[in-house]
Design goal:
Length: 377
């Protein structure tokens, strides 16, 4: 009943316009309406994704500050400012001279300890038969074994010190711990660096890149249902870029922000060619569902009036038909018509302003290039 009232209201308005136009026709006899020039499109049936749109910003997946683990003079830099580096690639060299000598000293101590252990072991072995013949006291023999144990312990401690010296020597060559992009160098060659304190550069890993964004809490049920069904596709488009980059939604925060009424989300986007950079503002599209057999028309066909949403369809005898419609999802400049239009029907996308129900229409998109009558099908 409500739909009929709306239709009647729109018909009354459009009918007044139609009467005014018909008064300009021939004088005398029944007035004839002139066919109005319009452009039409055919309603199509397709799978239409349900998309939630938002905006956010990109973030690096890993950010690493390169800080030396040993102190000394920075003698060589292997990287360029802003260079792309790989895991294990040399970046800086700290003067290894002191650490080389410490390794040599530690290796010398280990050699002495090994000789001492060997001497004490031979002494114990020589005195073992004497103990059996009671030519040496048990106390003296225990002392010999204690000396051997102490020598072995000293060897173990000095071997650890040697390994530490070797490790410190290896740390003079500073390498990248991740694949990523360097910032600028913060220190020039010839400066002294302090272990655990001097920041030499920063490396950010951009593949994959993280995208954080927020959506209204009203979409939370759809988002949770989509995540429960499987991986959720997202598309991001940086400001000023015509390309979209496809990724996956992997995180929904566990609480709604009470100040904004939004929920924080995060996704990952493969970025092997480093097209995306950290801290870029991006438009985000979240694909939460797919509507099968959706009837879609160009968005320009749908009009919005105070009595409702409507469009003009073209009947088989090329007359305008006013339809009150119920719309649904949008996709690629198309709008779903949930009620009011069937697939295969023609709808007016340009020229609706001068139309009224029953007005004859002429589709300009089907006119031949030189004018004249429309091409026969």
């Amino acid at each position: 009943m409500n739909q009929n009232l709306r239709l009647a209201g729109i018909v009354a308005v459009c009918g007044t316009l139609a009467l005014a136009l018909s008064a300009c026709g021939k004088r005398g006899g029944a007035p004839q309406q002139r066919a109005m020039s319009v452009t039409t499109a055919t309603a199509i049936k397709m799978e239409a994704p349900v998309i939630i749109k938002g905006f956010g910003n990109t973030q690096d997946r890993i950010s690493v500050d390169i800080v030396p683990q040993v102190s000394g003079m920075l003698v060589k830099t292997f990287m360029q400012d802003g260079a792309t580096v790989t895991n294990g690639q040399p970046l800086f060299l700290i003067d290894p001279s002191d650490y080389t000598m410490r390794v040599q000293q530690a290796e010398g101590m280990v050699a002495v300890d090994r000789a001492n252990v060997e001497w004490n072991r031979m002494t114990v072995d020589r005195n073992q038969p004497l103990l059996a013949k009671e030519l040496i006291s048990a106390q003296d023999f225990d002392t010999l074994k204690t000396h051997l144990t102490a020598a072995e312990a000293q060897l173990q401690a000095d071997e650890a010190a040697r390994d530490q010296a070797r490790l410190n020597l290896s740390r003079c060559m500073i390498t990248s711990s991740v694949n990523g992009v360097c910032s600028k160098r913060f220190l020039d060659d010839g400066n002294l660096v302090a272990a655990g304190m001097t920041r030499l550069t920063n490396i950010r890993s951009y593949d994959p890149i993280i995208v954080e964004f927020s959506l209204s809490e009203e979409y939370l049920p759809q988002l949770r249902a989509a995540l429960a069904a499987g991986p959720v596709r997202i598309e991001v488009k940086p400001r000023g870029d015509t390309n979209s980059y496809v990724g996956t939604l992997d995180f929904v925060d566990n609480a709604v922000n009470p100040m904004t009424g939004t929920i924080l989300l995060r996704g990952q986007v493969p970025n092997p060619e480093l097209k995306l950079w950290s801290e870029q503002f991006v438009d985000v599209s979240v694909f939460v569902n797919i509507i099968k057999d959706a009837v879609m028309v160009p968005e320009g066909a749908v009009q919005y009036g105070k009595l409702g949403t409507y469009l003009f369809a073209v009947s088989k005898d090329n007359k305008a038909e006013l339809r009150i419609v119920k719309t649904g999802t949008r996709y690629n400049d198309l709008l779903q018509i949930a009620e009011g239009v069937a697939a295969g029907e023609n709808v007016v996308v340009l020229g609706q302003l001068m139309l009224a129900p029953g007005t004859p229409v002429m589709d300009m998109s089907k006119m031949p290039a030189g004018g004249g009558a429309p091409a026969k099908k």
